[in-house]
Amino acid sequence: MTTIKGPGAAETFDGSDLRIAIVHARWNTAIIEKLVAGAKKSLFAAGVKEENITIQTVPGSYELPIGVQRLYAASQVQASNTGEGISATDLLSSSTTDLAKSTTTTTPKKPFDAIIAIGVLIKGATMHFEYIADAVSHGLMRVQLDTGVPVIFGLLTVLTEEQGLERAGLGSSGMHNHGEDWGSAAVELGVKRRDWS
Ligand code: DLZ
């Protein structure tokens, strides 16, 4: 069946100099793992280098906003410790010249260009689902507007386990893995954010 739903055709964006983080919850792991793999597939397809992808986990979706916020802050500190006069592009490089300018002995890194937050909330018998979904949605929006780093909303809020499996490309309906959309969104926003600066 054809459908009009979805992000529509997009230009392709070059992610080869982007630094991207994925923060994911561990609840509903089987679905999460597939979504993370889908996001990584799109990142790689856009040219994002494996060494420029950081993956961090939190226990549940409720912890996603603080995880994203602290990981981004840590990347800013890491970048500011790598020395002045090094451009964002240089910071992706670990050449000896760049390292010589750096004040640390670790590979210099720039702050993340975009962060993908991934969680799967499955509705239960109580109001728990509604409270967490609302808090996480607002929390992630707040982090991205407060920091200016694009935060990709990879939170599935599904009524059944089956709905979650479908959206991770694991169901029988042929629905695609939504993680792939999130990876593409991260690259597009990471690139566009530079132009918007
Ligand atoms: C407690 C809980 C429940 C019941 N369900 C989910 C879920 O479906 N998906 C998810 O990501 N996390 C769930 N959690 C855990 C909370 O998000 C959170 O980790 C705990 O309440 C601790 O703050």
From TrEMBL:
One of its GO terms (cellular component) is mitochondrial intermembrane space. Catalyzes the formation of 6,7-dimethyl-8-ribityllumazine by condensation of 5-amino-6-(D-ribitylamino)uracil with 3,4-dihydroxy-2-butanone 4-phosphate. This is the penultimate step in the biosynthesis of riboflavin. Pathway: Cofactor biosynthesis; riboflavin biosynthesis; riboflavin from 2-hydroxy-3-oxobutyl phosphate and 5-amino-6-(D-ribitylamino)uracil: step 1/2. It catalyses: (2S)-2-hydroxy-3-oxobutyl phosphate + 5-amino-6-(D-ribitylamino)uracil = 6,7-dimethyl-8-(1-D-ribityl)lumazine + phosphate + 2 H2O + H(+). Belongs to the DMRL synthase family. Keywords: Riboflavin biosynthesis, Transferase. One of its GO terms (biological process) is riboflavin biosynthetic process. Gene3D superfamilies: Lumazine/riboflavin synthase. It comes from Penicillium daleae. Its EC number is 2.5.1.78. Pfam families: DMRL_synthase. This is 6,7-dimethyl-8-ribityllumazine synthase. It comes from the Eukaryota. GO terms for molecular function: 6,7-dimethyl-8-ribityllumazine synthase activity. InterPro entries: LS, LS/RS, LS/RS_sf. It is an enzyme of class 2 (transferase).
